UniProtKB/TrEMBL annotation:
GO biological process, one term: endoplasmic reticulum-plasma membrane tethering
Lineage: Eukaryota, Metazoa, Ecdysozoa, Nematoda, Chromadorea
Physiological role: Central component in molecular interactions underlying sperm crawling. Forms an extensive filament system that extends from sperm villipoda, along the leading edge of the pseudopod.
Protein name: Major sperm protein
Assigned keywords, A-Z: Cytoplasm, Cytoskeleton
SUPFAM superfamilies the UniProt entry points to: PapD-like
Source organism of the structure: Pristionchus fissidentatus
Amino acid sequence: LSKMADLEQKITFEPPKFVTFKPKPEEQTREVTINNTFNKAVMFKMKTTRPGSFKMKPVYFSLQPNQTKSIKLHYSGCPANVKPNLKDRFSVIMAIVPKDAPADWDVEKIWEDQKMQVELADSVKRKVLRIHYEGYEEPADLPDKSDKKSKKKKKGASHDSVEDKKVGLPHAVATPHGAGSVVQPIVYIVYQGLPPREDVEVR
């Protein structure tokens, strides 16, 4: 398995898919527990679609092998008579700690360090935690984008072929050169009809 596949299976979340809040004008706090069962240290970065309404603490952190950490998720509340955005979500960005990380390394600085970006890209993974508002349907997993793409059917071009009718004269005809003389057959082409007048080029 690749590092990315390993991270996907070895980092567990509780709750695993979504966090529930009440769509009311009151402050609320929930927790998500993250467990690292991987055999390497992993660094994390928390993000959200609405930073003005949701706060995460801590935002940057790391977990050693077999270490568990609880992240506090704070919601400032939903204004009265306002429907919540059912697409709200948290994103947990994670990656294996780079081998070249300094001894006194800081998680936030490593995430922003351009020199570390190449090594981080080899194992970076994103986990989406959707936000479920109480009283609304629980968020479902998004379908694969490839499922949305419909295959275009190729239209076969059908061309009606028009066969020219050939009419030949008898091979032996009476001519001034003598009876029974054989001449080359004359072929007449009978057209199926002229095109409409508007299709004829006027010169």
